[in-house]
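Request: Give me one sample?
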Amino acid sequence: MPTPLPRSLQQLGRPRINRAPSPVLALVAPWLMVMLGSLTTLLPLIASAPVVPPFGFLILIGWQQLRPGLFPVWAGLPLGLFDDLFSGQPFGSAVLLWSVTMIALDIIETRFPWRGFWLNWLASAAIITLYLVLALGLANLGGGMASLVILGPQLIVSILTYPLAARLVGLFDRFRLIPLRPV
């Protein structure tokens, strides 16, 4: 006679009736994920030109396109402030650019409520391009001397990395909505 499975394995795959996601996890997970994406600048990567995409910014765009009402429009201010602490950009540049991005994504959402993958990728490519060019302009105003040509590799990597970031956001969205709490 086979041994019975443990109760936790027996319940695996069964629908969970009278369960709801944890409100704390559902609220905090997107904010923490964007903040962890901003911390990728601390990775020990040495390059002569900017190559690493702004992961925090990509994750912010991914969350805003996947769940448009999740972040308030003013979320660009605290998240941009956190990114400014670690990015090496002049202080306030991410606050300004992330806030403008949140407003632009809100306008895109009201203008095109039914979007597909390609339109999301096109919109994010345009926003990423503008973000990197304006961030370079703000850095040059702060004393930098870089040309636009140096942004080429980072721009290409950022645009091609966006679908991966959007997929990662989708996985974390499923994780944050796991029904844990009994109703």
The chain has a mean pLDDT of 88. The beta strands are 19-21, 179-182. The two ends are 38 Å apart (CA to CA).
